[in-house]
Amino acid sequence: MEITKICCIGAGYVGGPTMAVIAQKCPHIQVTVVDLNEQRIKDWNDPDTNNIPIYEPGLSEIVAEARGRNLFFSTEVEKAIDEAQVIFISVNTPTKTYGKGKGMAADLKYIELCARQIAKVAKENKIVVEKSTLPVRTAEAIKSILDNTGNGVQFQILSNPEFLAEGTAVTDLLNPDRILIGGDTTPEGEAAINALVNVYANWVSKDKILTTNVWSSELSKLTANAFLAQRISSINAMSELCEKTGADVNEVAKAIGMDTRIGPKFLKASVGFGGSCFQKDILNLVYIAKSYGLNEVADYWEQVIIMNDHQKRRFSNKIVQTLYNTVADKKITFLGWAFKKDTNDTRESAAIYVADDLINEQAKISVYDPKVSRNKMLADLNYLESRSVEENNNAILAFDNPYDACKGSHAISILTEWDEFVAYDWQKIYDSMHKPAFLFDGRNILNAKEVEAIGFVYKGIGS
Ligand code: NAD
Ligand code: UGA
Q1: Which of 42, 118, 240, 344 is deepest in the core (most CB within 10 A)?
Q2: What number of CA atoms fall less than 13 Å from residue 384's CA on the CB side?
Q3: Which atom of ligand 2 is nearest to the CA of 236?
């Protein structure tokens, strides 16, 4: 079967960029991205592609090229499902906040809604692709819903997890390390796998397209995120030991990373990993392991999260301790609020938790982030429900340039590794601050010797 019409349910950080790249690379395929969120779709359709709802380097250019040609954003979910041969499900799968598995299991209510809607609308055979990150064996539940509530048409379920990282989504999608497609080993399953392989083969070489059974594919996604996050918690654990022993974590990371079996990537010690997925996916993995009675497996992976929470708390404690055990009424400047550079996404950003701790100590936080608005910062803090909306409102000041944000502050803490931070006039910033001027580099991006020469009291992670 040749694919000419694709629908993607969910116009978020995955659905939007992924479908934009498919549309750009496959001009013969009509790609329609649908979402229930009207504002989000309106923003994707903004005539000025610089205003699309997701900031990713290179994305607005791709949307400008493909949108209106073979890329469409719409709220007409049923129409798009009806017309498509392939339906990607790319909706959110957050951690459950209620009931059984609260705080650990993935909430699959949005997935189930999609399956029911597809079953209701489909009048012809369709391929349904799990693009969202899902617990292993979710395809079984989707298949059961489709087969039991559908109109007697045939569905093939494929698992095609997404491995893009935010901030580099476009390059990751254009040059993926691999594309993973899991499907049934029946002739119909294999035909569906081949149809999807041929879509990706428009720009990805076939040796990078890996096909597996559905369960391996589903579990590989959770495993990949668990391994990645584990590396960060491992180096962060060493960072604390470095601080006690005089070792420097950057030197340790370099030394171990030169071992080709370990490799140099993902060994950057930090204030802790953030983002919408690492924590959620590991908690989900822990829950799955527990549900099979595999308690040692569950405990092993849970430690990655425990270490990450410890690292965030350790960072805020260090600020308080260094500032003579009190930050009450002191102005502390945050450079960065996003969970990593080159994205406007703040989900689970370490900055939120560090701010929360410091506000508990009655500090005033002033923030500059090149891509995050004050409203977003306040929404993030209000979500924690640690204090009233009004109290958060009084505790956070946001600036549109770093120099004003730092003026008159007692300490600066770097929470995101935006490239522009390195190039600032640090002498000018130092001159405008209370003395002694403290600099807590949660991303180890500044040169300690250089800023110490200016006069800063500099504290990096792990040295
Ligand atoms: P997101 O919250 O940015 O987007 C999900 C979108 O789905 C939202 O706009 C929501 O309105 C929409 N939606 C939910 N239910 C719907 C329904 N029934 N009909 C229509 N629209 C509906 O989420 P995201 O970051 O794009 O993540 C989506 C999935 O991809 C998750 O499972 C996540 O784990 C996975 N993933 C995310 C990333 C990432 O970098 N963000 C990377 C790889 C995988
Ligand atoms: C991560 C994975 O890298 C993607 O492969 C995956 O598709 C995605 O999760 C997902 O499933 O959502 P993402 O969270 O967007 O991507 O970004 P990362 O680059 O992995 O960074 C995650 C967090 O770890 C950030 O806060 C980052 O600053 C931190 N990090 C990363 C470190 O502290 N040290 C490092 O060495 C690397």
Answers
A1: 118
A2: 21
A3: 33
Give me the residue label for tokens 């600066």.
Answer: 412
Query: Is residue 132 lining ligand 1, measured as CB closer than 6 Å?
Result: yes
Closest CA to 371 of 59, 19, 6: 59
> Average pLDDT for consecutive 10-residue bins of the chain (463 residues)?
96 98 98 98 97 96 98 98 98 97 97 97 97 96 95 96 97 98 97 98 98 98 98 98 97 98 98 98 98 98 98 98 98 98 96 98 98 97 97 97 98 98 98 98 98 98 96
C-beta of residue 81 within 8 angstroms of C-beta of residue 129: no
List the structure tokens of 454.
């200016």
Q: Is the peptide bond before 135 cis (omega within 30 degrees of 0)?
A: no
Q: Which residues are catalytic?
A: 162, 221, 277
Q: What is the pLDDT of residue 1?
A: 82
pLDDT of residue 22: 98
C-alpha distances (whole Å) from 460 to each of 172, 361, 438 are 30, 22, 11
Count of C-beta atoms within a 10 Å radius of residue 269: 27
- pLDDT value, residue 345: 95
Distance CA 369, CA 446 (A): 17
Closest ligand 1 atom to 280 CA: 34
Q: Using alpha carbons, list the distances in angstroms from residue 361 to 143, 240, 308, 335.
A: 51, 23, 21, 19
SS3 state at 156: strand
Whole-structure pTM over 0.90, yes or no?
yes
Beta-bridge partner residues of 29:
none
Q: How far is the CA of 284 from the centre of ligand 1 (A)?
A: 16
Residue with tokens 């939007």: 16
DSSP, res 339 = S
Count, residues in the chain: 463
For CA atoms 262, 268, 273, 275, the dihedral sign is negative
